Amino acid sequence: MASITVRNLDESLKKRLRIRAAEHGRSMEQEARDILRAALDEDGTLAHGLGTAIHELFEPLGGVDLPIPSREPMRDLPDLSD
Fold this sequence. Notes:
Layout: H1 11-23, H2 28-39, H3 50-58
C-alpha cells in the first residue's frame, strides 16, 4: 500500500477530521482513507458522462422544444487558387 503526507493542513480542518473520526469510532487516518475512497471511484471513471450529468441537472426545469432549421444545399467552395 502507498502512503501520502498532507502538509499545510488547516488546524480547523484537522480538528473537524478528528471529531468526525471519533464520531465514527476510527482513527483520523482511517477516516481520511474512507473520505478519499468515497470521493473517488474505485475504477477511476465517472458513474456517467458529462451529457448525462448536464441532463440530470436541468431536467427538473422542464424541456424546451427548439425549431429544427431546414437544411439547405451546401455552398460552393471558395476559389483559393490566387
